[in-house]
């Protein structure tokens, strides 16, 4: 928060579909004990009143960005974008949200993601939002395989439908384990497999 010139502002660094980061401004007076400050999203004109005072400072720092993103910005869909490098098992990005986004930007580019899953739960994984023909590979690793040795992969699944069709796979892990996901071009049209994508999962009840 910026407290300069008696006015506060807060930038939320969480991204939501079609919005980007949102900046909120409070009322003219800084937060004081017992004072209620009003925060407004300039785009949606939604407001949130937050109590001031030292007792609220710790809670505000932790919870306010999340509250602002979900309540004020109307972010129903939260996602994480890939961070390079992520072109190997060792550098795989963790799936810290149910939907992650990336882009295969050049021929031969590879994106790896990883997720810890639980025994007996049914998971559905999907690669969608394609502009070109990509494929999805899923690798199962033991929790003890911290070196990500590919020779010790339990099972590998390769899903490659034609064109921009959704690539989907349902799995029920036989034990607690790591899954690694590889997104890359299908190999059918070398040099022409450049596409953004969304990789998502859900636990099927």
Could you please describe the fold and organization of this structure?
- With 205 residues, the protein is mainly beta.
- The chain has two domains: 69 residues; 125 residues, Jelly Rolls (Sandwich), CATH 2.60.120.380.
- The chain contains one helix and 14 strands; from the N terminus they run ββββαββββββββββ.
- The protein has a five-stranded mixed beta sheet, with no helix packed on it. It has a five-stranded mixed beta sheet with strand order 6-8-13-10-11, with no helix packed on it. The chain has a two-stranded antiparallel sheet with strand order 1-2.
- The longest helix is centred in the N-terminal third of the chain and has 19 residues.
- It is globular.
- The chain starts with 8 loop residues before the first strand and ends with a strand.
- The N terminus is likely disordered.
Summarize this structure briefly:
With 205 residues, the chain is mainly beta.
Descriptive tags:
205 residues; mainly beta; Jelly Rolls; 2 domains; 5-stranded mixed beta sheet; 9% helix
User: Shape, please?
Assistant: globular
Helix content, binned percent: under 10%
Low-confidence blocks of residues: 1-56, 59-77
| CATH level-two architecture of the largest domain | Sandwich
- What portion of the residues fall into strands of 2 or more residues? 35-45%
Largest sheet composition: 5 strands, mixed
Write the topology of this structure:
Elements: E1 9-12, E2 22-25, E3 36-40, E4 47-51, H1 54-72, E5 80-81, E6 93-94, E7 99-104, E8 110-117, E9 122-128, E10 134-141, E11 156-159, E12 167-171, E13 177-185, E14 195-204
Parallel strand pairs: 5-7, 6-8
Antiparallel strand pairs: 1-2, 3-4, 7-14, 8-13, 9-12, 9-14, 10-11, 10-13
């Amino acid at each position: 928060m910026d407290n300069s010139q008696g006015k506060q502002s807060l930038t939320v660094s969480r991204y939501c579909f079609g919005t980007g980061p949102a900046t909120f401004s409070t009322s003219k007076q800084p937060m004081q004990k017992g004072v209620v400050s009003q925060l407004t999203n300039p785009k949606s004109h939604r407001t949130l009143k937050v109590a001031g005072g030292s007792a609220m400072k710790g809670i505000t720092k932790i919870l306010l960005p999340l509250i602002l993103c979900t309540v004020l910005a109307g972010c129903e869909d939260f996602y994480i974008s890939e961070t390079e490098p992520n072109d190997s098992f060792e550098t795989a990005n963790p799936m810290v949200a149910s939907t992650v986004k990336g882009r295969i930007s050049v021929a031969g580019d590879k994106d790896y993601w990883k997720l810890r899953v639980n025994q007996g739960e049914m998971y559905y994984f999907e690669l969608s939002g394609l502009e070109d023909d990509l494929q999805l590979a899923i690798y199962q690793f033991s929790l003890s395989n911290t070196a990500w040795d590919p020779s010790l992969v339990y099972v590998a699944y390769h899903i490659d439908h034609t064109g921009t069709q959704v690539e989907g796979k349902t799995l029920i892990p036989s034990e607690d384990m790591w899954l690694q996901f590889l997104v890359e071009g299908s190999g059918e049209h070398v040099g022409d497999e450049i596409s953004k994508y969304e990789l998502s999962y859900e636990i099927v009840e």
